[in-house]
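Multidrug efflux system outer membrane protein
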Amino acid sequence: MTHLHRLLALTAALVLAGCATALPPLPASVPTPPQFKEQPRQNEHWTIAQPAEAQPRGAWWKAFQDPVLDDLAERAAAGNTDIQEAAARLAQARSLLRGAQADRLPRVGVGADASRGAGASTASGAVPATLLQAGVNFSYELDLFGRLSGARDAAALDAQSRQALLQSTHLLVQAEVAQAYLALRALDTERSLVQDTAAAYADTLRLTQRRFEAGDVAELDVIRIQTELAATEAEGFALGRSRAELEHALAVLVGEPASGFTVAPADTGRVLPVIPAGVPGTVLTRRPDVAAAQASLLAAQARVGVAQAAWFPSVSLTAAAGYAAPDLGDVFKWSARAWGVGALLSVPLFDGGRREAGVQGAQAQLDAAAASYRGQVLTAFREVEDQLSALRWLQDQALAQGRAVDAAQRASTISETRYRNGLVSQLELLDARRNELINRRQAQRVEAARQQATVRLIRAMGGGWTVETPTRDT
């Protein structure tokens, strides 16, 4: 009894020591700024958005009001291979979580065995004997020090991280589809400008050739027009090649073969939505990649506790009940019944530093996860600041470029009138037309850049948003 009391006292001390072991504190994170640096200059355009961590991301691409883009986004959600891979990894993480949860439950099994060995000794030696057994086995590990619960918590956080990464993959694919599609439509508009310019050069060439045949102009004037026409047509071919590459990229994003995928050319305008910028703290609650990094950090912290729990003993309860007999016909007789219960206490004493190495490895993983989380937060802030800054400068650039287009169109109109009246040379007319084309194409590129920056800001903000329309009091 004295030894039993000592064993119980030792076990109680170990239990208290295990309960007193706390998880390591999380490393310091990045302080959240009160507002974005670019936001004060955008007060007339940007509003505050409410946190939307638990809200659906929504079909944010519908804000561009383009049915073709809506269709491509839905096809990508169903067929994109990156989304399918992320979904499979989530399923894998959830299966590991179910395995960790199963480790905390009792284990029950049935078994049967037969053995033959030396039996009772006689004058002629040991007599071989046969023993047949069949029964039910039960085992259960007491989670006194939180090792199993810590492993379950870490697996649950891993599954949560994979869920956030799946959302992040959805957002990434949606943004890539929108960017590729908007870039393709920008090329359609630019090609239309180039084709109109080439058609104008062709008309001018026919007119100039007739005037050359009549002896009114020199051959050099015809050559100049031919040069401009050929150069403009070459630019149109280059734009067509770029468009084909974007179309092929869209095919991969929606999970379809490029050979059978096509997007019909169109030159329709799209709405440029206004996105509520929110505050930096809102970004951290909305972005799924930040949520994934945070869950990975907490999982690494839980695994440090699991590694620390390896220093404490494990206690398992076992039980078995069944039948045992030397003959197969007697195995299931009531007189052959047998049973047993037991408890196993395993106390690690020396393992060559394996447990210490496990704790150090878990701590290193925690430090790495903390650094990854801080880096993800910093990247989130930078991406939002980048796009807010880009949209601000692009808006000013678009206004200035619009004035340049108006002036270039006016100059081209005046030059054409003066050329027809014989007041200026053909070279001046060509320069005016070339300058107009350059400015119109530059204006189109600025507008395309604004669309791309808008999509990137949506992605940086973590996806969709909901803006309530104010109602008037009656």
